[in-house]
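User: Can you fold this complex?
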Amino acid sequence: MSGVYIVGIGIHPFGRSEGSSGLKQGEVAVRAALADCKLQWSDMQFAFGGSDASGNADTLVTQLGLTGLPFINVKNGCATGGSALFGSYSSILSGQFDLGIAMGFDKHPRGAFDPRPADWGLPEWYGEIGLMLTTQFFATKIRRYMHLHGITSESLVRVAHKAFRNGAHAGHAWRRTPVDLETIRNAPMVSDPLNKFMFCSPAEGGVALVLASERKASELGRTQARIAAVTTRTRPPGSFEVFAPCLDIVRGPSATSIASRAAYDMAGIGPEDIDVAQVQDTESGAEIMHMAENGFCADGEQEAWLAEGRTEINGPLPINTDGGCLACGEPIGASGLRQVYENVVQLRGAGGARQVPNTPKTAYSHVYGAPGVSAVVILER
Amino acid sequence: MLDRMRSQPIAPQVFETEPVPHLIGGRHRQTGRIVFPLDANDEQFQACALPSAGTLWSYTIQRFRPKSPPYAGPESFEPFAVGYVELPDAVIVEGRLTGVAFDQLRIGMPMRLTVIALRTDPDGSSVTTYAFRPA
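Assistant: Here's the predicted assembly.
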């Protein structure tokens, strides 16, 4: 058995950090991850890392040390972190390396992302007439889903309410003040049925994870988080993705559902075996839809699950225990690794006020982004 | 009403107004799969007229002014509806919705293609785009 383990974790708090560049936040995260496992940068045999909008990760060798290590830059949209982890995992699994690091960071300006149509293979008129907005995609997707599966707006409210309550207990979260149900219900709409408390915001932050072979992890005495599966998938036919001027009438699965299935196959376990999960919650509805796309419940069951508090910290399947993207914001390059960071914290039993009871044995994370890409990581203690 | 003499479509080969307003899609030469818009540089697809009428598949309201660029609508902003309309036996297309109160929108309602002014400049000339209105 040649497993791969996450032995060190580091994070630069998410949110807004005036005067600190995205690269700097990546560096801070790397130093924290190394300190966590009491290793040096010179111990790292390789690195994978990237950002969406904050520069080339490999320039960090200037600050971290000119050790000559191979450093692969990753630029894969919202899956940047997941892809860096996938590369690191595969490198160790190959037997060529014993120790390496995956990192992701970003720093975005305030307000909605402003993508350019040409970068996404779309004609200029698509943006000119006012359709080039990720918010519209999420709103139309959840509207359709609510119609088909009997999900009410109250479920959207519950997801946001939980996010800010959980975020209050996470040191790295951005929005750390609980917001009451009534305030969330009555907030101004951004893109109906989603209001301002139901969308995450572009933000800043950095995360780094030190990975080790089984031999090395045992030697370090740090075997709490074994990577049981890591998968990334692009969109299949018939899926509904960001920036889609048209959809096939015959509907199909999503990038998430195929990444999820592959991850369960790889880990040899099913959704019923997961003890804690972090799923992409770009907005409230995304968490609801991703609960089903990741296999945790059937379409429509989310309404009862949320009403019964099944995804609360002390529920049968806690979801987004650090408040997710809603509370942490979304620095694109760091977001997927933030979920894995949180899962390692939970497996170590180090979550403090947000710790899932009876230290979880399995932890699941899922990131999704444009133009239809998902990454799933399953960890086991 | 639009002054047709002084209006110009947002781009060529997106929609036509005769005999009735309709979108120009692309039909895959081998599989018959229909897409919108037509990518004139992709030889796998040939142009085809899409049905003018369909049903509302999903929708939302754009409550804030999108960033410019790319948005080329007027400076003064009024929220507008956006949705997907299923054109039977063809494809589901995304577009702006017009001529309906926001609270009257319902998934499944019949819709028909029309042409609206995206913006009208001070000299009276306008840039037009397609939109769906209740049928």
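Chain B touches chain A at residues 10-11, 14, 25, 33-37, 57-64, 66-67, 69-73, 80, 82-84, 86, 89-96, 102, 107, 118, 129 (CB under 8 Å). The radius of gyration of chain B is 15 Å.
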